[in-house]
Design a protein that fits this description.
The complex is a heterodimer.
Chain A (H helix, E strand, L loop, with lengths): L1 H17 L24 E7 L8 H14 L3 E7 L5 H10 L6 E4 L1 H9 L17 H6 L10 E7 L1 E5 H6 L15 H13 L6 E4 L6 H11 L17 H12 L3 E4 L4 H9 L5 E5 L1 H6 L8 E4 L12 E8 L5 H15 L2 H11 L2 E2 L11 H7 L15 H16 L5 H21 L1
Helix pairs in contact in A: 8-9, 9-16, 15-16
Chain B lengths: L3 H45 L2 E2 L7 E2 L3 H7 L2 H33 L3 H16 L2 H11 L6 H8 L16 H13 L1 H12 L3 H9 L4 H12 L1 H16 L3 H6 L11 H11 L3 H28 L1
Antiparallel strand pairs in B: 1-2
Classes of the chains: A alpha/beta, B mainly alpha.
């Protein structure tokens, strides 16, 4: 009897620890007590923001809220700051627990392809400010025309090099310094030159997780003209000869390593502290955020392509509103978003706080800011925003796992192609299942 | 009119009832906690494992399909193998090492014993994230102390990517797990050794027993309940090794550090496959329950 009791107890303990929720998402979400409309008409809403420039800085965000409250004292905004390591888990847990935030600030890959596709977001089509770039708006719109993300800012993700080391290694000859571009051939020659100059870790294909994987995707797909997804965003296409050739070339190149023990944040840290001589996950925000730690000149570069004209991976961030089945809160959330995005003067400040580019023409943004002007050179190279393809979550996890296997493989095109195919099949299966 | 005996019986019955009610009222807070946080999740886990459950739509009943898929999922078997390796290595090593340390420090002066107990217990009370980050720096491929020392002492020619090489990654995880696991067993063994009946040990010595014989024949049987508890707890902790994996390797490289617990998390929270994750949770729970029962049985026989 005691044994049976002990076994049952152990079973209880483990099951209780491993139980994962389900089934709650379709039920009407109960309101958290704190967010109930108060008797005096005050409505409390929650804003959860991923680390997008200074939108992770409490002082900055609180100042926007204070300015908003000067106009709308009846709406109280509580803020929660997320990170890219645990942010998704936190949001998903909140959704399953019926406590989803009212406003969330992130990109279409989450707001459109994930939570939007699951029917958890409100359509914000009637709130889109005039003049919003069509391409950006298109990436924030689902197949049915619903806009689940009100875009605020964008960037073309690029890479960066340590200008001083490249100069020392006489590798600047392989770079078009005016346009910040290079061809595939020049890229490999530059890497070899830096490696030969005594720098063993020129660049690293990080694959310890999905963080910052836009860098590795852009690197691989641009080298020999491969693609990641089809233009219709219905299927993944990365199992191609071009991408296999690119990965094989990276495997064979001195100075380029595949490292499954690091993710993009580690790569950036290693680039900033001088261990790596180039970073594949870079943008203007990285340079601004690391300005104090950088003791060398960072030179932003487009990803290499055979013709020197790459298709850069875009980043778009904006606000989404979760459907919490509470009209008062939904309306309050929309009021807050309208305040931040409609007026040009406020919008300019909001964009500057992100350290990215605006999504519509607006005066006064980054006036006289040379750094932003330099990074704006990348914008015309922005390519298809394929992150809204169905099955995106699976496609991402398959990608970095595939890179780990490729890095440990014999590096032959055949082996790599097989790995690409396996990852693509899993991603497409997930896309079909959605 | 009731007799004296009847009155006495009635008041005794009331007293018993009163005491029972009081006892259950005292138990009630824990009972609510137990039902809400143990029994109900347990039921939910088994129930959800029978569904294709994901975010944003009604769950679809699929019977035992999750279990069928589980047993044909190669990553699940890799995760099960890795989990088994972690358990098979860490449980005996933790127990043996803890016993050895406890034996050594229990003979020391009280102050020294307390100091060592604190030192070995530090990783337990320190936040797991902090401990893990320190280990991550030490294992760093580019400027970690292990590669620095290894290269400077000539033990290794070039840096080893400890957490990025399938050959070493699981070993590194087990090493960190050991450092965070030995604290509690050491404290428990020190207490158990203190509670051993000295007269029996002295009698054994008088009868000519060697120190090893005295330990094995006299002390060890008296410490068996403690050993049993440590075995069960260490086994469960090893099976549930999760934070280390999440913070250090995410199950990689090439699934070489994938464990059942991490695979449950990966499926449930990354791929939103709640039903599949719960099915794995049920299997893991059954495995742990069987192992715990075997350990308890063996401990009782001993």
């Amino acid at each position: 009897m005691k044994k049976l009791l002990a076994m049952l107890l152990a079973l209880c303990m483990v099951l209780a620890l491993t139980a994962c929720g389900g089934q709650t998402a379709t039920n009407p979400t109960p309101q958290p007590e704190d967010d109930q409309p108060a008797d005096d008409g005050t409505v409390t809403i929650s804003l959860w923001t991923y680390p997008i420039g200074d939108w992770t800085d409490e002082t900055t965000v609180k100042s926007f809220i204070a300015d908003f409250n000067a106009v709308h004292p009846e709406i109280k905004v509580n803020v929660e700051y997320l990170d890219y390591t645990n942010g998704d888990d936190k949001v998903n847990t909140a959704i399953e627990g019926g406590n989803a935030p009212d406003i969330i600030m992130e990109g279409p890959e989450r707001l459109i392809a994930n939570w939007g596709a699951k029917g958890l977001m409100l359509d914000l089509a009637d709130m889109v400010p005039e003049g919003t770039y069509d391409g950006v708006l298109g990436s924030c719109t689902n197949a049915n025309g619903a806009v689940y993300e009100l875009p605020v800012c964008m960037t073309a993700h690029c890479m960066a090099i340590n200008l001083e080391v490249f100069e020392e290694a006489d590798a600047l000859q392989y770079i078009d310094l005016e346009s910040h571009t290079w061809t595939t051939e020049d890229f490999f020659q530059a890497v070899q030159a830096v490696y030969d100059a005594g720098y063993p870790y020129v660049g690293t294909v990080f694959c310890g997780g999905q963080g910052g994987d836009q860098g590795t995707r852009a690197l691989v797909t641009n080298l020999y003209g491969g693609t990641y997804a089809n233009p219709e965003h219905t299927a993944y296409t990365y199992a191609s000869e071009e991408n296999a050739q690119a990965l094989a070339a990276l495997c064979a190149q001195d100075g380029i390593t595949f490292d499954p023990s690091i993710v993009a944040s580690d790569e950036i840290q290693n680039f900033v502290n001088g261990t790596f001589q180039m970073a594949f996950c870079w943008n203007a925000t990285q340079e601004v955020n690391n300005a104090d730690a950088l003791d060398f000149d960072v030179y932003p570069m487009a990803f290499p392509a055979e013709d020197g004209v790459p298709s850069l991976q875009g980043g778009i961030w904006g606000y989404g509103v979760f459907d919490n089945h509470d009209e008062a809160r939904a309306e309050a959330a929309k009021t807050f978003i309208r305040y931040l995005t409609e007026d040009d003067a406020v919008y300019a400040k909001v964009v500057e706080a992100t350290h990215f580019q605006p999504v519509r023409d607006v005066d006064g943004v980054y006036e006289g800011n040379e750094l932003m002007a330099e990074y704006a050179l990348m914008n015309p190279l922005m390519g298809d925003y394929y992150q809204i393809t169905k099955g995106w979550t699976t496609a991402r996890t398959e990608w970095w796992n595939m890179l780990q296997r490729v890095g440990a493989s014999d590096g032959s095109v055949e082996t790599i192609l097989a790995e690409l195919q396996a990852a693509q099949d899993a991603a497409n299966a997930a896309a079909e299942a959605e | 009119m009731p007799s004296d005996t009847q009155v006495k019986r009635l008041s005794t019955g009331r007293l018993v009832l009163h005491e029972n009610v009081a006892a259950y009222l005292f138990l009630l807070p824990f009972l609510i906690f137990f039902v809400g946080f143990v029994l109900y999740p347990m039921f939910l886990c088994v129930y959800t494992s029978l569904f294709d459950a994901t975010m944003g739509r009604e769950d679809i009943y699929i019977g035992l399909q999750n279990y069928q898929e589980l047993f044909s999922d190669p990553v699940f078997w890799v995760a099960l193998k890795n989990t088994a390796i972690i358990v098979l290595v860490s449980v005996p090593v933790t127990c043996a090492f803890s016993l050895w340390v406890a034996s050594a420090i229990s003979k020391m002066p009280v102050a020294a014993t307390s100091a060592f107990r604190c030192i070995f217990y530090l990783p337990v009370v320190t936040g797991s994230v902090a401990v893990t980050m320190v280990w991550k720096w030490m294992f760093n491929n580019y400027y970690g102390i292990f590669n620095y020392l290894g290269q400077n002492t000539g033990l290794i020619d070039k840096p080893i990517n400890w957490l990025g090489d399938p050959k070493y990654a699981l070993g590194c995880i087990i090493l960190i797990l050991l450092t965070t696991s030995v604290g509690q067993p050491i404290v428990l063994y020190v207490s158990a050794l203190d509670n051993v009946d000295r007269t029996l040990v002295e009698a054994a010595a008088v009868d000519g027993a060697t120190p090893f014989q005295a330990f094995w024949k006299v002390k060890w049987p008296q410490m068996m309940p403690t050993t049993l508890y440590i075995l069960v707890i260490t086994t469960i902790n090893s099976f549930q090794c999760f934070a280390l994996i999440q913070l250090l390797t995410s199950g990689g490289p090439k699934n070489s550090t994938m464990t059942i617990m991490y695979y449950i998390y990966y499926n449930a929270f990354k791929l939103y496959r709640y039903g599949y994750g719960n099915a794995m949770g049920v299997i893991l729970a059954i495995i742990i329950a069987i192992l715990s029962a075997v350990q308890l049985r063996l401990g009782k026989e001993k």
